[in-house]
Design a protein that fits this description.
about 90 residues, mainly beta, five-stranded antiparallel beta sheet, two-stranded antiparallel sheet, globular
Length: about 90
Amino acid sequence: MPDRRRLRDGCRERRDTIMEQIKVFYDPAGNALTVWFGDPHQEHICEETGDEVILTKDRNGRVIGFEKLNFTVPAPEKLRVAFETVTM
């Protein structure tokens, strides 16, 4: 049975897969930020959300990444990524 945990907003999150790594790519020429939390090779379909965000899904319809369009950073050479793990 999948582990379901209550999020701060009261919704439930399904955690039936193990995330081994998150990949973050910034393309300053294309003004795009891409984040993968699944295997990019499993990409099957992309879905636009209408908010300049594209969800990338696998064959089962699970989101394995997203791309934020028109993402700019004033000083890309100083771009830092912070990552926190939330435990409940």
